[in-house]
Fold each of these.
Amino acid sequence: MKIVAFDRKDGPGLGILEDGHLIDLSAVDAHAPRELGAVLRGAGIAALGELAKRAGAAHRIPAAPLSYRMPVETPGKIICLGLNYIEHVNEGPFQKPDYPTLFMRGMTSLVAHNTPLERPLGSIQLDYEAELVAIIGKRARHLTVENCLDAVAGYSCFNDGSVRDFQRHTIQWTMGKNFDRSGSFGPYFVSADELPPGASGLKIECRLNGQVVQTDNTRNMSFNVIETLVYVTRGITLEPGDLLVMGTPAGVGHGRKPQLWMKAGDTVEVEIEKVGLLSNGIADEAR
């Protein structure tokens, strides 16, 4: 099931992509849920599938154009991995870590599909990072290898946009990873049952102005979704709607010679096989 969060005339809505059309769930039932995080914290996505079965021809609209919202509007936690593809580790001054390298992002750092990313006034070093994101579907602590994937409701695409000079001001990466509107998430939620276990074996690619700048496969993560879930939940309780962002492959702008930064007028795309294509233009921050 592919679930889309989008703007209706009367506010946010949820839809299900099916056969090239979008089933507008609020058109099927005026009381339908309008935010996926609330669905994950409540009845679960199966309830949306049941609602979609009631859809008639009048409830189906063209899948484009839409005004997209982020698949989960209000995640409680956004936990990100750094240094999770070995060739990316080799681009910088780091060594392969013994444990997952974790940091956090805040909501104000993210925008939806087709919304411009923002190059800040204070830096020209806005970099792209194509990433897979796992979306948590149930409360979880002390997960095991055997049961951890039960906690994942689905997946989406993520651009972990980074302001590199600020990222490297200190040994902590928080500042450079959290500039307002520097990253993106979308375009939709793909339920875990539509993908291989742990979303492994999928091509992941980033394109800047149509040119491929990153390409790899999710099987090449140093710490896959299973290993990461087991590690994180040793100390952190995951809640429905939380995001686990799985790191980026080699090819980032910071590691290139000459370095390559995103600028106003550019278009950056993150595409993951069977998951979707996340696209954003780049705009300069207003003075």
Amino acid sequence: MKGPASYPHMEQLIRFSFGFLVLLSTLPSALQAAAVVDLGIDVLAKRQFRELQGKRVGLITNASGVNKNGVSTFDLLLHAPGVRLTAIFAPEHGLYGTTWAGEKVDSLREPRSGLPIYSLFGETRKPTPEMLREVDILVYDVQDIGCRSYTYISTLGLAMEAAGENGKEFCVLDRPDPLGGVRSEGMPLESRFRSFVGEWDVPYVYGLTAGELAQMIAGEQWVSKRPQLTVVTMNGWRREMIWEDTGLLWIPPSPNIPEPESAFFYVLTGLLGEMSGVNNGVGTPLPFALVGSPALDPYAFARTLGQRGIPGLVFRPTWYRLFGKEARNQVYGGAQIHLRDPRSVPLIPTALTLLEEANKALNGSPIAGMRAEDSSMFDKLCGGDSVRLALQQGKSIQDLWESWEPYLEEYRMRRQKYLLYPEVTAHAPLGATGSGRPPAEAGEAVVPKAQPVPAKAKEP
């Protein structure tokens, strides 16, 4: 495949195009004024792409890989002087975010540049030696949502492993965790349940940026061969920030994560999607923000959830239908979830409470009626079978989540050496760094304090 230098006048064209992109990305605007965070790609551009100079670059990205003003990392690297973009790698949902969850992503050619787009959710989920033949460094720029079962972090680690095995460098352009960097909640991963929806030994909600998680994957030796790793850290991001605090544009990283708050809803109801006869809003304009079934009484169900006294949430009775001809005549009743205060919501206790109440309201049929493949996927998502067995046996869900606290305390301490941004002190108000200092520079280690345990849902 010919590179840009093979064509007359291409260098001048690239420099002009890059200058135009830089102009677009730096023009004064309301969007730029609102952004208080420089993403990893913004920092890289300000440094004149020095980490990539003279190297053949393979870019792992999708539609969410943009700078703070919405210019795609693909376009910026394609036109950056001294940078030779040679390949694109697409995770689940594809480069453009148009394939649905679980659908195979095809390898093809990017139409404007002619560059190969290699699928990492098709025949292979890990870059092959042939895919990396024309690559010196893999660059990862994908927006994550902070939940272990969301597969982009599996792609991150497997691509790191491929880079290490093939003698390639690896670079992460860091991005915020939409759930913030304070939370660590939920189910541990049992090794026998490891899968593509649960690759790494982190809690279900792990409270790390992609760059921090990459450092942990390498540092804990979770991959067979570690690459030379560079993390380009953000400027202006603090651990207590959720997405709305950053002023950044939200580009949906997948079809059913249309808004920043969808990351919270995904944690709250994602597991419900594997239960028999229960819908979590996927297939409606409110993905993951509904809990419904044709057999549920909306008023009784919403009232029961409201009586649990869960902080930060409001449950409203609702009826709805799913998209698609085959579902148009089926009316679902249930509750719509409204986030009044995302920070105060205990995500995992609430997620387990929703599972428990839906199962009770439908007389145990959502768990008892699961097909074998759904039970298997449910357990993989949970990282073990303890949640499903507790629901089947009518055991206390609160006892279950409390039993994970020793694991979470150990995890919070173990992750400290991988943090690139200061931890919030226990007494610091939200909106200020706990240490009173700016975020760490790339590679600087910060020793934080362990975070408090999330609040629990009240019993009825």
Amino acid sequence: MFKTRFQPRHLFACLLAFSTSLSAGVELGSDMLELLNFEPLQNKRVGLMTNPSGINRKGITTVNLFHQAREVNLVALFGAEHGLDGMAQAGKEVRDGTDPKTGLPVFSLYGPGPIRKPTEKMLQHIDILVYDLQDTGARSYTFISSMGMAMDACGKAGVEFMVLDRPNPLGGIRVEGPLFNPRFRSMVGQWPIPYVYGMTCGELARMINGTGMIENPCVLYIVPMRGWKRDMVWQDTGLNWRPTSPLVPHSHSPLFQVAMGMVGEIGGLDLGFGTQTPFELFASAWLDAPAVSEHLNQLDLPGTRFESTHTTVARGRYKGKTIPAVKVHFNDPVGAPLSPVNLYVIEALRLVQGRDMIRIKNDEGKRWGLFDKVNGTDTTRRDLEVGRSVKNIVESWQEGLDTFKEKRKPYLIYSTSESTKSNAQR
């Protein structure tokens, strides 16, 4: 095991822990830190940003791991969106408090004010802030916004920052979706990266710190995983999934969140919220599910299939009623397109049923602020308003995606598996 210090543009440190012995499955950053006997944290006052998704491969939360380790002086806890317990609904502000299990203060980084980054007072008794949150691989999921903003606050306060790396559940190869316009910067889009960016949180932290995305770069430590490869989605890791928030209950949920999240921001369709399959279908009393699913299947999207079915609604106008639905299936979680599915669904409703969801919502006076912020641009909405084909919209992303792929290369930590490399060379 060794430490390597990197200094690409700003002071920047990366802890690379590994063993030459083979390991079964993926070991997380928290697992590797424990193997190091928590040496990088010894003799430091430690703050921890996490929620119940922050578990090691044995299922032990990082809060318990740190609290029980004699080598770690854990002095404060930090919660991002959904709170330290991960139960608050999306967008709901959470107040500071005290953790009943450890008695430690809990600082909310999604609190009233609004507070979205650590304040000077929160950091004044901390030497290093450790980040261990499981994100979903989508730019709009606010954990990575909180991570980078906390890095900036730590850089300004002279506090070190450590990322315990975790898998990107969408894998490290897929890069897709709308590009980012700084005019639409928000918690659901903070960094100039594609909607699906194909990096672990540790890799992204390196990029945020090394490319001037934050005003105050911090002293950054990354504790990498062992055994993770870029072509792995979550189901390939052998790790247990702990819900990251109420609408991301399963290990496959991030796939569907990306594929249907933009549709959800338009409104007018039931997406299975309140059931065990959020984002996995779209439904309405007026939906001609057989015709719409047939149209979508004729597109022959790689690794993707649409099934006509019915669902019992858990929330809203049709609560308790069984209505037509189209179920989305991903037969190839690595190769299937995700972001484009949103647009193909919107297009299918317009072409098959004459239901122009954008126009309908415009006529209802809908404000598009959150939709545009989630997209990181208003170009997607404007393209849909004028009926631009999804094929052309997706093609318009490509140049920017290729540029991003080159820009991220110096900050990547992990490689693809040898089998994937061999197949690519054939």
Amino acid sequence: MWQFLFWASVAAVFYTYVGYPIILLILGLFRRGRHVHRDHELPSVCLIISAFNEENVIRHKIENSLELRYPRRLLRIVVASDGSDDGTVGIVNEYAGRGVNVVHHTERRGKSAMLNDVITGVTEDVVVFTDANSLFVPDAIERLAAHFTDPQTGCVVGKLRYIDGDVSPVGRGESIYWRYEAILSRLESVLRSVLVANGSIFAIRRELFRELYPDVANDLQIPADVAMQKRGVVYEPNAVATEQTAMHWHEEFDRKTRIILRGLTGFFVLRDRIRGFRRWQFVSRKLLRWMVGVFASIAFVANTVIADQSLFYTGLLAFHVVFYFAAMVGWMKRGDRTPNRFLYIPFYFTMVNSAALIAMARFVGGRRQQVWEKAHSTRGASPDATLSASSKESVDSRTEAVEFQR
């Protein structure tokens, strides 16, 4: 029995991280190529910036938005302030003469509830969602909008790139995580079925928007709603948003716990909308990954029981012990400015899966979360550094050919 538990757990982890991408790759081989045409008339766009007490970054975000390479007559910028009680609204009002609008509610109700109100006043063809601490490369909206020349495309997901992923163990771990997520999004995009959006940068056709549940993440519900309406959800890797990573492990731990709790809530609430192929995607890409901590724990316990059965199992137990010892040392050295990959990878893996276990316990216990708590260290990026990174990414992105397969 213990051998079965061990290998079943190992198989579950392997399938989650390797098997699912391989299956997507195989399925994608049977889809026809699909090109994006950039010579069509561009749609009108409303850029909605979600904000809560963003006085440290909102000016930089607005300036970045005003400098986007998209016809001003076709672009409207709206800042959605959900209960901000600092200087955010005052700063935004300074840009009223440049066409920047603010929708402000004094009561904090959560991002989804705020977006429900804002979207009622949108008349543009396409809505782009973003956060106050995310900066776009100059052609980001242009690249997102180009996909909507295809009437069968309903949602386009952009790419998130961290500008300082090498300065902390958390930053490096998060950068690896998003690179892996980008691979999955590319593979899913070939099938025109990207499972989740990136809240920092994604776009939809306005008419496909459906009222959001207050305790469900908008970047989970909106793609599900679009897919339910038989429209494609695709990934545009050259539409790039840059952000600063969380510098402190406890901020990232809390953020992961919140995201997974809202993800579990979203799946429960949207279970009738996430059906068939997309339900398999959700189980494979999200649900099983959130349970990796459970599988890893079972594998470790089972390995200790069967370690004396062969030298092979003894070696695997030694690997387990070294891995978790490295995670502990990584936690002790979490403040290092030059983290060692042999330490930060085990540390980040263990931290994220611990957060998932806590999130699952809270979900089972009936806890839900409507408002989001920002990581304060992500709101202190140097403007010069960010713009430099954005400019470099923009130059790199223009050298890449954009092609999607159907």
